[in-house]
C-alpha cells in the first residue's frame, strides 16, 4: 500500500504462538509507527504446537503480563482466552524444522529465542547462525533469548546488545 513500509519478520521455533501474536499486538496496539505493516511468519517443527498456535487460545495465566489495553484483544472461550481474528491476520504459521530448512525470503527481523542457541550443539549452532545471517536483509536484526549468545566466529553479524545482532551492510 502507498506510504507503508512492510516489515518481514520470522519467529523461528514459535511453539504455541505467543511470540508472533505479541508482535502482531505490538504493531496493532503499541507505540509503533502506524505506517509499518508487519508480515509475520512463525515456524515450528511440532505440528501439535502449530495447531494450538493457529487457534490463538491461551489460559488466563498467559495474559497476565500483557498491557491492560492489549487484553481487550482476547475473547473468553470457556477456560481460555482467544485472540480476536483481526489481530491474527498478520501471522502465518508454517511447519518447519530449522535444522532441515529455512523459509524462503529475506527478513528485517528474525526472532530465534530459546531454541538453537539453547538446545543444539555448537557445530550446528554455527551452521544455523550463518544461515540466519544470510536470510536477514542488510541491517536486519536477529534477536536471541536472554541467556543466549552467538559464537564470535559467526561472520556477517555484529552484536548490538546483549541478545541483539545486526546483519552487517554489504
Describe what you observe in this structure.
The chain is α/β, with parallel strands linked by helices and 170 residues long. The chain has one domain (5-167): Vaccinia Virus protein VP39 (Rossmann fold). It has 6 helices and 10 strands. It has helices spanning 18-29, 47-55, 68-71, 85-88, 116-119, 122-135; strands at residues 5-12, 36-44, 57-59, 74-77, 80-83, 91-95, 107-112, 136-144, 157-159, 164-167. Strands 6-2-1-7-8-10-9 form a 7-stranded mixed sheet. Strands 3-5-4 form a 3-stranded antiparallel sheet.
- Outline the biggest β-sheet: 7 strands, mixed
- Secondary structure tally: strands: 10
Helix content: 25-40%
CATH class: Alpha Beta
What number is the mean pLDDT?
93
Q: Report strand %.
A: 25-35%
CA radius of gyration is: 16 Å
CATH architectural arrangement:
3-Layer(aba) Sandwich
Total tally of structural domains: 1
Report the order of strands and helices.
EHEHEHEEHEEHHEEE
Number of helices: 6
The helix-and-strand class reads alpha/beta
In one word, what is the shape? Answer: globular
CATH fold-level label: Rossmann fold
User: Regions with pLDDT < 50 over 5+ consecutive residues?
Assistant: none
